[in-house]
Amino acid sequence: METKLAVDEIVSKLPGVHGARIVNDEDGEMVEIHVLADISKPAKQLVRDIETAIFAASGVKIDRKIVSIAQIALDTEEKKTSATDGFTKEDSQGYSFQLQSLETKATNKKLDITVTLDHYGKELQGTSVVDLGDDEKYMAVVEATVTAIRDEIPGFRVEFIEKLMYGMNEIVMAVGSSLVNGKRKKEAGARLCKKDSLNDFAMVVLEIVNKI
Predict the structure, then answer these.
(1) At 197, is the secondary structure helix, strand, or coil?
(2) Average per-residue pLDDT for the chain
(3) C-alpha to C-alpha distance for 107 and 105, rounded to whole angstroms
(4) CA-CA-CA-CA torsion for 8, 13, 19, 22, nearest 10 degrees?
(5) Helix locations, 125-193, DSSP H
(6) Which of 6, 31, 186, 208 is 20–30 Å from 62 (CA)?
(7) In the chain, where are the structural domains located?
(8) Tens of pLDDT along 137-195?
């Protein structure tokens, strides 16, 4: 079987793909494939290309449901990103979480972060506290956002989130999941980052949950 690094390289060289992260289990088997791509191809076509490339290079037949695609356009920050892992629109629960505000307050060398969401007219709120000098303030925003969401979706969680360079731009890419009809469904999302923007970390989480 190909090593994790070799599979990363194989997938990353596919047209339209700009980065890949492979997650293996204790036996070295691929259990998750997270891919950042542009919008030149439909996500489902990319999943098929990845499946074929891995099989051709290593002889390993993967389950396409382990592939999560996050697509992003660079020509404007207002374009919507999209993602798929084999589910159709009809599988969606149709959530609609909107970011109302993200407030930060510095007190006693601590940074208090409060995220307020709107969910069909209902106000939801989550908080998190981090040291002022801690680089984990972005993760604290994610924690506060997830806390607010769990008032409505107890099973929602963020499984992966990372800041990446995409050309000359910095983006945040994330994967989240929730229980849908008794099974855990995963979605991916990506968002262009503005300088020192905390909002982008909250928004990429909402992008994911609104797709589930």
Answers:
(1) coil
(2) 82
(3) 6
(4) -20
(5) 137-149
(6) 208
(7) 4-71, 90-209
(8) 899 999 999 999 998 999 999 998 988 887 778 888 899 999 888 888 888 888 888 77
Q: Which two tokens stand for residue 53?
A: 């490339």
User: Which two structure tokens, joined as six digits, stand for 174?
Assistant: 């994330």
pTM: 0.63
Q: Is 80 exposed, middle or buried (0-12, 13-18, 19+ CB in 10 A)?
A: exposed
Q: Two tokens at 44?
A: 């489902």
Phi first, then psi, for residue 208 (nearest 5°) are -65, -50
Fold of domain 90-209: Double Stranded RNA Binding Domain (3.30.160)
- Tell me if 4-71 shares its fold with 90-209: no
Q: How far apart are CA 114 and CA 96, in angstroms?
A: 19
**Tokens 């956002």 found at:** 145
CA distances to 19, 32, 149, 165, 189 from 84, rounded to whole Å, are 16, 13, 21, 22, 9
pLDDT tens-digit profile of 18-58? 888 888 888 888 888 888 888 888 888 888 888 888 888 78
Q: Using alpha carbons only, what angle is made at residue 28 by residues 27 and 31, rounded to the nearest 5 degrees?
A: 100
Spelled out in words, what is the top-level CATH class assigned to the domain 4-71? Answer: alpha beta
Per-residue pLDDT tens over the stretch 113-138: 999 999 988 999 999 998 877 668 89
**51 by DSSP, 3-state: which?**
helix
